[in-house]
Specification:
By secondary structure, the protein is mostly beta strands. The chain has no helices and 8 strands. The chain starts with a strand and ends with a strand.
């Protein structure tokens, strides 16, 4: 089953964030709660965690992309 990874709300009044780095790549195994990406807002850098364990099957945005809060940024195929 595929599970979406969304860019969460990272602070009041913040509507977008920039992808700073992907710590995992497509095909990598991830555990629930493991950091898969880092994003940056005007105020801070935030780690994005995998919501489930599985294999990272899709990454929708490259590093330096600006993404709106609530957008699907990746997909994990659960085992």
């Amino acid at each position: 089953m595929a599970t979406s990874v969304f860019l969460p709300s990272v602070g009041m009044g913040i509507s977008e964030a920039t992808i700073v780095s992907w710590l995992k790549q497509v095909g990598d195994r991830v555990e629930a709660g493991e950091t898969v990406a880092e994003v940056e807002t005007a105020k801070s850098t935030v780690e994005i965690e995998a919501p489930v364990a599985g294999t990272l099957s899709q990454i929708h945005f490259a590093v330096d992309a600006e993404v709106e809060i609530g957008t699907e940024i990746a997909v994990i195929e659960e085992d």
